[in-house]
Design a protein that fits this description.
By secondary structure, the chain is an alpha+beta fold. It has 5 helices and 3 strands; from the N terminus they run H-E-H-H-E-E-H-H.
């Protein structure tokens, strides 16, 4: 993700935290997928601030980096779906 896109996404509220919808847009995935990951595990680290679920940009980047692969055989050996 480019630095400019990170700044644009985070600057919506001036916070390093993103809502589920913002995090899903940042990762190019459905908010429902992030909700499912919160229940079954395997998703990025999140925080609960009261009732609000928030994701930190650095955690989203770390989760994405951990899922980097050079071939499809790497993804199956790491247990990714």
């Amino acid at each position: 993700m480019t630095q400019r896109r990170k700044q644009r996404t985070a600057s919506h509220s001036g916070s390093p935290f993103l809502t589920t919808d913002q995090a899903a847009e940042y990762l190019h995935m459905s908010p429902k997928t992030l909700e499912k990951y919160r229940v079954v595990g395997g998703g990025p680290v999140y925080r609960k601030h009261g009732r609000k679920v928030l994701y930190r940009l650095a955690d989203l980047d770390a989760w994405s980096e951990a899922r980097a692969a050079r071939s499809t055989s790497e993804t199956s050996s790491k247990g990714w779906v």
